[in-house]
Amino acid sequence: MRLYILIPLVCVLTALGSAQPEPGFDPGAVVRQAQTLRNMSPGDSRDVPGRDDGEIPSQLKTGNPQEPAAADGLLPGAEFMIDTSNALVPAPGSQSSAAIGFDGTNYLVVWEDQRGGGSPDIVGARVTPGGAVLDPAGFTISQATYDQRHPAVAFDGTNYLVVWDDTRRGVLDIYGARVTPGAAVLDPAGVLIAQATNDRRNPAVAFDGTDFLVVWEDDRNGLDSTDVYGARVTTGGTVLDTAGIVVSRAPVGQFAPAVGFDGTNCLVAWHDTRSGAADIFGARVAPDGTVLDPNGRNISLAEGQQTSPAIAFDGTNYLVVWQDTKGPPIEIGIYGARVSTGGTVLDPAGKAIAPDSRGAFPSVAFDGTNYFVAWSEVHGIIPAYYSVWGRRMTASGELLDSAASAVAPARLWSQQYVASGFDGTNHLVLWEDCRNKVGEPDIYGARVTPAGSVIDSSGLLISQSARGQYNPALGFDGSNFLAVWEGDRSGYTDIYGARVTPDGAVLDPQGFVISAAANWQYQPALAFDGTNYLVVWQDYRNGIDEPDIYGARVAPDGTVLDPSGIAIAAVADRQGYPAVSFGDGEFTVVWQDGRNSDYDIYLARVAPDGTVLDPTAIAVAQAAGDQLKPVVGFDGTNYLAVWEDYRNSTSDIYGARVTATGAVLDPNGLAVTQAVSGQHVPALDFDGENFLVAWEDYRRSSHADAYGARVTPAGTVLDHSGIAISTAYNDQTSPAVVFGDSSFLVVWEDDRTKPGTSDIYGTWVSTDGAVVGDGAIVWQTGSQVGPVLAHGAGSRLFLSYEGWAGMIGSNLYNAMRVWGKMDPTPTGVAEMPSAELRTTNRGPTIVRGVLRVPASSAVRGASCVLLDISGREAMRLNSGVNDVSRLSPGVYFVHSSIDNRLSTIAKVVVTR
Asked: What is the pTM of this model?
């Protein structure tokens, strides 16, 4: 990646000031980073000093760091959380694939986590032998781009090594990170353990007394020939076998490896399809990486399918356990076999631990005397529920219990995918548990004594976070803004709100409930009628398969006037994605509606007193295919609704004008854009003369861009080819639009600098369609998504979005939250490959002595200044050569503006 800066063509000379780098800032380090970046070609992945792989150095970022708001107040131009409550609840999204290690004092539990609502990350929490969760909101081990899944963990006597499969490079690789017993992540960017062609997945790890042995499934030799590979990793995080160790390259496929250590060698076990059916095989691996059984040893060749092995060592022999399917799916059980350190299978016929139990995915741990085998067991067929069971076995292979016992007995939700550990006193058994939300499991656990007694009969909730918040929407009542959002406080999302002053003061920092009806409430939108707001949303209170459209009026003081909600569209099939606008004395609500099989666009008018004037609704668009995700605005006479439209097989943007009485003026729709490859997620606002409609556009096929078009009140599309609002590197998606004093501000999700992780970028679009000032608006840790905008009094604009919150001040959230930012302005230019540069991306990255600015285009009202790292003015710039030799070395910012409004910021590194 290369660092480029944008120097605007409009700069005039005015004054000179002084500049000093901020205390503790190392200009030399930034220069070294920037020099390295300049010499890297696009896609180069070699290390940059002080840089996390795949992430721009924090000192070179535009935007703000993770804690943009000071603990004691709002910094000018800073992002701030709207609802600062941080009571812990079961983490939103799915938490799955738990693994466990023990360091002699506490457990480390790790899992894949989708609390951010997008790609899964790797999260962990320490648990004491007494069952206390020391990290109740969890801590992030990897939050890299795209997916991180299937973690495993082992302890080396000093630190843990957590490993997982990772798609940040576009294919699945194996990554890892060392974690201290104090929960410090020593490798926050991750250590690349294995890369090759095709995919690698499902790692396992053990410590051999000197190094870790990591093993995994590997497709490098062909997608129809999955093998088992491994690599040794030192306690310092160095990968000793970068090309990988071939553990098994037998014909067909080898899957789901497990690994243990016996004091001399490791034993790797997997399920193997070389004979056509799945059997359990194993191979010993010496500490020097030599595979002692290159052809593998058959541990179980029983009839049927044997899969999902797990391993424990008792000081003399291993116990390998597996899931055994001898006939139809109902004939599933848990079996095992002891294996000596020399590789001899001591139980060639297998040991029936829980035959015909319908048990699956076993785990095993040794307590110093006996083994404890745990598994998930299915009950029923449709629907099927899982419970967690266990049984003890002696080191000599004898079953101690007359029958298995329930660790987590059968309930009306699933509990499955088990992992186990032992702390010297008790076992800790983990599982995925859906008690809080169907289809979104949390990680639970229970301690089990060596005698088989369950200590925590109700289970211990391990995966928690602060309440998640999603999909904000904004309105303005003439005095304050109202932000509304989905809040995940009770296992299901409800609709919450908070008022925010034009100066950014949050009047309701704990938020207030707008709707907490049964099941889910999604996708809020709102409008103001001069007296009250109408907030509308997609509502599942009448059934989880057929959502409806509900609403409630909210007074400017935050009073919810309709606490039970107003049923705006509660009919058969699915209604969703509502939008609302106010004009000519009534609200108009539009939504996508499935009452006619395909989705159509419908509307209903709602009076200021909450009366629904069109209880059967009015059809706006019923073309072939689906019409989805409508938005609506009012031009003083009529409404304009626009939506995604599939009448031509791919998605286009269509619209229709609707009168204030509900008459549809364009029953066949207006084609706003029919560009190739698809256009999605429209947004719009009105400038007093025309609407600007914006959307995400796939005419480049491989990436989404932000495009727009102006539409007149008469329904004429002024920009038939579309306005290219942003065609930067990678994807620009989910735009939002608001009209300011004289131009539109368009913002969007943008992953140009870190693919798979979005920041908020924006630009100004003039009323004649000119685009000025593309740059970053919000650039924080993790993803920022779902931007929305509102126009307050005068020139005040308000941006809200959903973004990651870690440690903010003294509060730990580890959840997606709703944020706000007053007067958002596109600032700065980020890294992008040279192939994607625009012609304006000129100018030096490193300057020595002089800073050259292109010739002025003599635009009236233009100015250009150089700011130091603290934001103070260092000097004003003129077009041409500027002498910067007297400035202290460090990072500076070229800030340009037109009439103090259309501003950009570009980064310059000054060195000697």
From this structure: 0.78
